[in-house]
Amino acid sequence: MRGILARWTSRITAWAGRVLTPLTHRLRPRWESLPPLARFLLSPVIGIAAAIAILVLLGPYLCAAMGAGCFWAVGATNTFILFLGSAGLGLFIGFFVGWGRASRIPTVSLPLLVYVEGLRGIPRLAIVLMAVVIFPRLGVGINWAVLWGILALGVSSGAYQGEVFRSGFQSIPRPQIEAATSLGMTYWQTMQHVTLPQVVRTILPPLGNEWIIVLKDTSLLIVLPAFVSLRVPDVFELTRVAETVQRATLDVTLWPLIFLGAAAVYLAMTIVISKTIQFLEERFQVPGLGVVVG
Predict the structure, then answer these.
(1) CATH number of the domain bearing residue 46
(2) What angle (nearest 5°) sits at the alpha carbon of residue 158, between those of residues 282 and 97?
(3) Which of 9, 84, 137, 176 is the most buried (most CB within 10 A)?
(4) pLDDT of residue 294
């Protein structure tokens, strides 16, 4: 079995190398020609789209190999997709909210302050319920309720991530910006070479905490009425899967184990997010910065 897996892995790697290498050489000049802000915002979007595409393409093959475990695999996959959509939307919103909140323009910062304080003061479950109830009444079909759930979580998370970005932007000493301007650097050059590198290093730990919260809050989407009417492989998230298995299990003593299994999957996902954040922290760390010499 290991030999077969190794052969298929080598074949897939060789095929990916032949396909992606010319594509990378062709797209890299166009990517580097984009403004730094555009690259910063497009990077998570491209990563999320690629992850969702891989999960969708490989899902049927994984289900065929797993058999009965496919039900749980679908729930975990859909939970991860819901997390990517909500956290990615929150990241996009949070960047502009934090950028605007850090500005000295009252007409920009004050409305964003109302948005942040308002969204942070409302429970996310209430926001999800409002989105699911309000949008279908506007003439949108009930089958889009999952999308409204992602939008609700993303907009709510954007308020929290906006405060993370605001603290990151405001942590940059003003003399650094003035020094970059005196050297002849434009606003966008200063953003690329001075502001964003320091902001990213500052916001990674609190941003990781918010992403973990968003992952666990995807369980709130169990209240969506569309989950009942649509096909299971499309929308069932992990908590709904655990509830469905629990209802189909006659032995009451197994019910705690079912939800304990779902909790273990959530724990595994949070560990992956935590390790990803640690990797990014090491990737953006400046050698010697923050080291205290005793």
Answers:
(1) 1.10.3720.10
(2) 90
(3) 84
(4) 40
